[in-house]
Specification:
Keywords: Membrane, Transmembrane, Transmembrane helix. The chain has 46 residues and is mainly alpha-helical. The protein has one domain. Helices cover 91% and strands 0% of the residues. The longest helix is centred in the middle third of the chain and has 42 residues. The chain is rod-shaped, with a radius of gyration of 20 Å.
């Protein structure tokens, strides 16, 4: 029973880490896309 409780706690922390990682990855990709888009728009002549 103690082992199961520890395992569920570990799994919860692992899921939290994966969620944090995916969130930071999404933010990084969004930032890169936004920067390249703004550079592309700045280089365009209107």
């Amino acid at each position: 029973r103690q082992f199961l409780r520890a395992e569920s706690k570990w799994r919860r922390s692992k899921e939290g880490k994966e969620r944090e990682y995916s969130a930071s990855l999404t933010a990084t990709i969004g930032l890169l896309v936004w920067e390249s888009m703004s550079k592309w728009l700045a280089s365009e002549d209107y």
